[in-house]
Every structure is written in C-alpha cells, then in structure tokens.
Amino acid sequence: MKRTDLGGVLLFVLGAAAILLLPRFVSDFRAQQFAYVGIYFIALLGLNVLTGYTGQISLGHGAFMAIGGYTTAILVSDQGLKLGSHTFSADVKDIWTIPLAGLVAGIAGFLFGFPALRLAGLYLALATFAIAVAMPGVLKYDRFAQFTGGGGGINLFESAARTRPAETTDPITFETISKPIKVLGLEIASFNEWLYYLSWVVALFMLAVAWVLLRGKNGRSFRAVRDSELAAASSGVNLATYKTLAFGISAFYAGVAGSLLAIATTFVNPDTYPITLSIFLLVGVVVGGLGSLWPLVFGAIFIQFLPLWAQEVSKAQGAPAVVYGVILILVMILLPGGAAGLIRRLKTLYKSRLPSRPLSRTSD
Amino acid sequence: MAEFFQQVVAGLATGSIFAALALALVLIHRATGVINFAQGEMAMFTTYIAWTMIENHGMNDWLAFGLTLVIAFGLGLGLQRAVIRPIERAPLLTTVIVTIGLVLIFNGLASLIWGAEVRAFPSPFPNDTWEIGGVAISQQDVGTFLTVLVMVSLLWAFFQFTKIGLALRASALNPDASRLVGVRVGWMLAIGWGLAAMLGAAAGMLTAPTVFLDPNMMQAVLIYAFAAAVLGGIDSPFGAVAGGLMLGVGLNLIGTYVDFVGAGLRLPVALLIILVVLLVKPSGLFGKPVTRRV
C-alpha cells in the first residue's frame, strides 16, 4: 500500500467516525436531513463514475433512481423477499431490497449503455433526458398500474407505526412508552436516526467500493475514455466495455440511492423522482468536483441544504429561487473546479508554501 | 383531409417557435460548445418586459415588440460578459451549471416582480381564419410562421453578408486563428449571446398569446427546442429550423391520429421517436457526421 493510500484510509476512518457520531449532537430533524445528504452522496458517486470519470453526460439519472426506488417499493409492499422457505422479517427485509434495487437499476443502466454507445456529448444528454422525461409516463401507465400503483404510487409501509419506535404500554401506569430500536448495541431512538445510520453506512460502503474500483487500471481506463477516445482505444482500452460498464456501475449507485430515498420518504409515486432531481444531481457533481470521490459530500450538502437556506433568506414568492441561482453562479465562478478543485488548490498551497498560482483547470 | 392540413399548418406555427428557440441554442452551442439551459427563461423574462411596456405604459404593440428585441440583445450580451466570460476557461459542464443557475434566477425574478398568476398577452395578428378549399387556416398561425421565417432569413443574411457576421462565423469556427487576424473573439461570443437572446425573445412573444404569460411558460418550449436542435444536428442552423418544424408538425399529427397518445404522453413519445432517429443517425439529421474509427 502506497503512503497516499494509507493517508486516504486514515482519512476515511476519521470521517466515518465523525459521521457515526454526528446524530449525538444534532436534532432528530437534522438527522433526517443528513440522511438525505448520504442518499444524494451515493447518487453523486454513481453519476461521477459516468460523467466525471468517463465523460458521458447524463441528464436522466433520476430515472435510474426511480427504477431502484420502485424495485424496493414493490418488493417491500407486495410479497416480501423469500429465499427458499425463509421469509425475511420486517426491517431486515426492507434493507435486503437495497442491493437488489441497485442490481435491477444497474442492469437497466448497462443495457441502456449499448444504444448510448452510438451517442456522444449533447446527443447522449438528450437521450438520457428523454428517459427521465418518459419515466413518470411509464410509471403512470395503466397496464403497469398493478405493479407501480399508477399515479398514486406505493406506500412502502402499510401503517405509519413502522416508521416510529416500537411502543408498548407500561403495565403499571398504563402510559405509552416508546422502546428504542437496538442495532449492534447502538440504541437508535427514532426512524430518522435509523435512516441516518442506514444511509450513511451504505454511503461509506459505496464510497469504499468506488475508491477500490477507480484507483488502479480501471480508473485510468475510464479517464482515458473521457480525455480522448482515440488515444484510449489505441492504448488497448476497450471503449464499448468501459462505457457500458460505467453506465452499469453508475446506474447501480443510482438504484441504491433511489431505494434509500423510497425508504426515507416511505412511499414512491411518479413524482418522487422528477426531472429536476436529475438536473440537480448534475449540479451536485459539478459543485463537488468532477472526477472526485469524497468531496462529492459537499455537492450532496449543497443540493440538500441550499434550497432550505434560500428559503430562510426570504419566503417571498420566487425569492428562494433567485438566492439559490445567485449562490450557484457565484460558487461556479469562484470555484470552477468545485470543492475538489478548492481542496487541490489548498493542498498545493500547503505543500509549496508559496502564493497560489493559477492551476491547470482539468480535473484530476 | 381538411383536418390533416389544418393540423399541419398549426404544427408549422408551433414548430416555427421551436425553430426560433432551437436556433438560439445552436448559435450559442456552435460558438462555445455550451447548451444554454436559460434560453427559455430569458425568453420568458423578456416577454414579461414587453407585457409591462404594453399594459403598464400603454405602448403600441409593435413598438414594444421591437424595443423588447433590443433589450433582449442587451441582456444576452450583458449576461455573457458578466457571468459566462469569467468561467470561459473552466470545464464546459461548469458553464452549463451556470446556465442552470440563470434558469432559477430568471424564473424566481419573474414571479417576484410579476407574480405567478397567468396573464393574457396581446397578439399582433388578428384572431381570424382564412378559408382555403375547406381548410380553415388561422391568421395567428400564418403570422407566427412568417415572423420566424423573416427573422431567420435576416439572421442568415447578417451572417452571410456583413463583416460582423463573417467575424462571428470565423470565431465560432476557429477562435485562435480569428484572434490572430484581429477579430475580437470575446466580443463576438457576447454578440452571439445577444442574437440568441433576441431569437428567444421573439419565440417568447410568439408563444405568449396562445399559452398565456406565466413564469413557467417557456419550460416545455425549451425542451422541444432542445429536442429539435438535437434532431436537426446540434451544430446545424438549418437543421435546427428543419428540426423545429418537423417536431411541431409531428407532435400535432401524433396527438391527432395516434389514439393512446394523449396530451400527457406527447412529450415522452416525441422524445423516444427522436431517440430512435438518433440511434440511426447519431449526429442528427443535418449534422455533420464526425468520422471517427476507433
């Protein structure tokens, strides 16, 4: 293991510890918001494999999230997951649909990658956009309604009780008391906290997977496809393999994120994954930094919290959008390379101890 | 048969609006490689300016339209200098994200200034029809179509026969060489943005009389224009116009003759058809195919 790798692992462990301790210091409501940050982080990691590393623009990642979310919703609400004669019980069953959701979305993405091979740049952007635009129509379509619930969507949990801590009645005072959920010795007080841990454990796992996937020859191959297809092909990188693979991996991540989003909102309908979601995912990737991994957290924080902050500035009709837009443009002008670009710049500054020079603008 | 022709004429009218906005997208894309997502919202915003001049200041319709085109040109030019130029060295996607920021700003500003309620916008054309061989042709449609036709022709002449037009084409084609022969490429890009904003403003003012004026008026139009531009070949001005007209007519015919395609499914179906077209011709119908064997 190289020295830089060791530093990366150390940073990862420290970050993970900080993330796991965070709910102790914030309110239940904030924990829920940070759970969403984790979910967006996963989606951004996936989109970055495709857009940041391989250079393929997708304006339709919301569609792959929808596939993941609906997979989970259908499995959870209908029959439950059976393996052999064993039926997984309540909460475990929900969690085990997450990798399946990723797999279904990943296969869809991989298959979409084949026709997409013929398209480049904006043509690909329109193609992916078309998928995202068509998705709600498909989900609402009458013939699929028995699976997708049509326009009404699917409630994941039949009753709201499952999203609250278990309640029992005190045998002496007859007062209702709530029992915290216990997982691995950790007492988890609420659904939101459970959600937080679930999404961040998955997110950290997915981050580690992305890091392993992208660090060696594979990462270089993806980047070679992005920088010059001609050069990549002449160095023996199989374009078709890597492009479809990027689509598959990317959609797998989107599927996992979509599945978690479905669990977080406790229901899915055709509007759970709107076109704006696809567009803001792209915003998140660029704000985090194209071709980066952990700095995407900042992209996720940006797309989760900026709309809320903008609302606090002014609630007048239209004002939050203006605030959001102005901040977005300022961030892009000040940090054209996103958070990752800033981190790189600070690193060089620290290493050279010299006044910062303009750095090359290419990511990585 | 009469219905068929009526649908075609109506389709050409909406198609010409798509064509104008698609042409605006192509202008900017040819020069900078960026798709301006804010093109539709800029068009909506300038249309509101025209509305204010007519309703609040009692200005003559045509004068207001003309003045709006000038304001739009200034707006496009100013935006390029203010927010696009500072990041011209950044990755292309950064610029795309900035245009998404502009979408939010213009949309928000419009509801902030004018409120979200729907407003009627005066049409410069009479609300009558001509009867030609049993086919009722709306004068509104003909007026829209001809207006766009005239604008596109003027623009073509401008690019073809004027010195600035030549400089604009040169700086889109080869910025470095143009700089060497003394073309101020930076300003040419700004003029390109101005012209695109002008085309957009025209599209907005032609859209508003039929769909009414509200802050989200141009969003669907922008999607259609984007689709039209890609269908025609994102670098081909001719393709953008042809793509827009084809899309306008196609949408109308699909909506009329294919039963299961209601209003809600028109956009997805149109996009999926374009997707199939692109798979056969990956660089659009009129785009220059990039020959690349790897």
Quick structural overview:
The complex is a heterodimer of chains A (364) and B (294). Chain A has 364 residues and is mostly helical. Chain A is 67% helix and 6% strand.
Descriptive overview:
- The complex is a heterodimer of chains A (about 375) and B (about 290).
- By secondary structure, chain A is mostly helical.
- Chain A has helices spanning about 5-20, 30-55, 60-75, 90-115, 120-140, 145-150, 190-215, 215-225, 230-235, 240-265, 275-290, 295-315, 320-335, 340-350, and strands at about 80-85, 85, 155, 165-170, 175-180, 180-185, 185-190, 265-270.
- Chain A has a two-stranded antiparallel sheet.
- The mean pLDDT of chain A is about 80.
- Chain B is mostly helical and about 290 residues long.
- Helix content of chain B is about 70%, strand content about 5%.
- Chain B has helices at about 1-30, 40-55, 60-85, 90-115, 140-160, 165-175, 175-180, 185-210, 220-230, 235-255, 265-280; strands at about 130, 135-140.
- A two-stranded antiparallel ribbon of chain B has the order 1-2.
- The longest helix of chain B is centred in the first third of the chain and has 31 residues, at about 1-30.
- The model of chain B has no long low-confidence stretch (mean pLDDT about 90).
- Beta-sheet strand percentage of chain B? under 5%
In which order are the strands of the major sheet of chain A placed? Answer: 1-2
Q: Which structural category do the helix and sheet elements of chain A fall into?
A: mainly alpha
Question: Poorly predicted ranges of chain B (pLDDT <50, ≥5 residues)?
Answer: none
> Regarding quaternary structure, how should these chains be classified?
heterodimer
Identify the overall geometry of chain A. Answer: globular
Report the biggest beta sheet of chain B as strand number plus sense, adding barrel if it closes.
2 strands, antiparallel
Low-confidence stretches of chain A: none
Q: Classify the secondary structure makeup of chain B into a structural class.
A: mainly alpha
**Ends apart, CA distance between termini of chain B:** 50 Å
Query: What's the mean pLDDT score of chain B?
Result: 88
Biggest beta-sheet profile of chain A: 2 strands, antiparallel
* Percentage beta strand of chain A: 5-15%
Spatial strand order of the main sheet of chain B? 1-2
